[in-house]
Amino acid sequence: IAGGCTKTEEEEGRGIEEDTQSFHGVGVCKWFNVRMGFGFLSMNSREGEPLEAPVDVFVHQSKLHMEGFRSLKEGEEVEFSFKKSSKGLESVRVTGPGGAHCIGSEKRPKGKSAQKRRSKGDRCYNCGGLDHHAKECKLPPQPKKCHFCQSVSHMVANCPVKAQQSSPGSQETPLKGEEEVQNYSPPPTE
Fold it and tell me: Basic residues: which segments have biased composition (predicted)?
């Protein structure tokens, strides 16, 4: 191919061999992120031969042999088949000792708490209740109020509480438009 980079037959053969040939390893889970669904195994033995130093092998939750939520516990003993890839060593199938199911971590991804799930945007705009929205509200229409501090004396755009929290001192500093009005002097009349 003109101008392009081509692989020799020998290089292509090696690439295919790397992608298809798998090896057997034994080790422990080095770490596993239950939220992201991946981690690393620390391989102590390869093809039945002990290694001088542990070698890291990538593991994705989809490769774990177990029921339900798939994860690994740090330090959990595992057996696995793995392959070499362009990114390094990647597990193909991970089991517990003797091909048993993996034990897994007791940790679960942190779901949104009830408070986060029903944030301020998920409340009734009429009364502020968390158990329904305005169209299901049993109260008559309530007076309009500030969405930030719930005061009926002003709207959120003019909320002193919000202004104070967002930038302390912003109350003392007039806005540019206000300065211009305050400093405005009409042109002299002749």
Answer: 109-120
